[in-house]
Amino acid sequence: PNIRIKIVKEYLLVYEIHTEKIVVLRVWDSRRNPKDLLY
Question: What is the CA radius of gyration of the chain?
Fold first, then answer.
């Protein structure tokens, strides 16, 4: 998979690039504690 991360201010945008589309997998607020992330 072609998964990438883009940092936009305090946010991390995790997305996957396909031939015809871009799929956003997660938007993460980097000010939060990673241990609080629910999978």
Answer: 11
CA contacts within 13 A on the Cβ side of 23: 8
pTM of structure:
0.68
Whether 16 contacts 23, CB under 8 Å: yes
pLDDT attached to residue 33 = 73
DSSP code of 19? Answer: S
Would you list the domain boundaries of the chain? 3-33
